[in-house]
Amino acid sequence: MTTISYASPRRMLDRLKALGEIGATGDGGVCRLALSDADRAGRDLVVGWMRALDLEILIDAFGNIFGRYPKANDAPAVVMGSHIDTVATGGIYDGNLGVLAGLEVIETAIEQKLPIARPLIVAVFTNEEGVRFAPQMMGSLVFAGGLPIQTALDTIGIDGARLGDELRRIGYDGDYPVGKLPIHSFLELHIEQGPVLETEDVTIGAVDRVQGISWTEYKVLGQSSHAGTTPMHLRKDAGRVACEIGAFVPQMVFEMGGDQVGTVGRMILGPNLTNVVAREATLTVDLRNTDAGKLADARKRLDAFAHAAAREANVHLEVRQLTDLLPVPFAPDIVDMVEAYASAHGYKARRMPSGAGHDAQMIARVAPSGMIFVPSVGGISHNVREFTKPDDLKAGLQVLESVALRLAMQN
Ligand SMILES: [Zn+2]
């Protein structure tokens, strides 16, 4: 097993920093919401780098970008990639690392004139974060056939914009057919976004599965009234029910134990005034588990509680499932290779599940896929203080390089 590395961590880091300046928030963070002007500028920069390497640029009808080497080779490719959109208070590593490491591996293969048996592709998937347009991982989901493209294009964002209109506005509504790109295997290098690797002093995570994710929106419709004059039993208090649902989530999750997690990350009251009983309330619940059955049970219990709470308070409840993703296992031979090459490079590695959703879990539906994790300092991500040490970035790049080139060079 060869452990020689030709890739340049320096060049990758320089690109990470340059990309991090687009949409920079001034405090070390970055805001490039999907299909915003900043997203367009980020895409332009990355596509410019791809063109400088003379890659073949393929942009599909959902704005997913693929840079292929060599050109016009339709054989199933070894694809490396991730996303470059961010949350509003994102860091410079989330997603961007997987894209720029893939680009670096391709640049290495070109420079070294490596005899690859199948094409190498670097991929940028549209709207992974799902902040502006739900659900998350949308570009890879559409690519894998899990969501009809028209439904995805018709998605209305939290700012009222239609996704398809925004895609056209930023000039990334390509003509390559969605999902038609032949993939031999897919690899995504990503920061862990959690504290496990750092806590255990392990450099490389060989990700063997991804947690299932359920996102539900509960919309409670009551009636606004005077906070002083309306007796409690005559109210139709949407805020009360939202709070009850919100409080039930951690209670249920602690009770379930295991690796079940649950989050109420968004709650909006209307009219949102101190002395007015809320007329309406909207909250979202994010539930995750590596066990599909337990996740489904959690969702069922939560729904039952929400309906009972709404009945009790005499308000109307609308339930909308925003995301419903089963746990995903990754290709065992890719997981093995990640672990083996990490050791061959002299890095401590461990198998682990991913607690976050990633594009690789969607591509796993159509091609053997795997992920490589590198440590996040303090476990912090989706935060301007997100940081991964340069040595760890280098380790991740080297493992990606070894696995990708092995897959591309073998027959
Ligand atoms: Zn990400």
What does this structure look like?
It is a single chain. The chain is 35% helix and 22% strand. By secondary structure, the chain is an alpha/beta fold. The protein is globular. Zinc ion (ZN) binds next to loops.
Structure characteristics:
binds zinc ion; 35% helix; 411 residues; 4-stranded antiparallel beta sheet; 9-stranded mixed beta sheet; alpha/beta
Structure summarized in a few sentences:
By secondary structure, the chain is an alpha/beta fold.
Amino- and carboxy-terminal Cα gap: 16 Å
Which structural category do the helix and sheet elements fall into?
Answer: alpha/beta
Helix content: 25-40%
Proportion of β residues?
Answer: 15-25%
Shape: globular
Instruction: Give the radius of gyration.
Output: 23 Å
Annotation field: number of helices: 12
Mean pLDDT: 96
The low-confidence parts are none
N-to-C series of helices and strands: HHEEEHEHHHEHEEHEEHEEHEHEH
Largest sheet: 9 strands, mixed
Number of strands: 13
Cofactors, ions, other ligands: zinc ion
Topology, element by element:
Elements: H1 9-20, H2 37-52, E1 56-59, E2 65-69, E3 77-82, H3 96-111, E4 120-124, H4 138-143, H5 149-153, H6 163-169, E5 183-191, H7 196-200, E6 204-210, E7 212-221, H8 238-256, E8 261-270, E9 280-289, H9 292-312, E10 316-325, E11 328-329, H10 332-344, E12 349-354, H11 359-363, E13 369-374, H12 390-409
Parallel strand pairs: 3-4, 3-5, 5-13, 6-12
Antiparallel strand pairs: 1-2, 2-4, 6-11, 6-13, 7-9, 7-10, 8-9
Helix pairs in contact: 1-3, 3-12, 8-9, 10-12
The structure holds zinc ion.
Zinc ion binds next to loops.
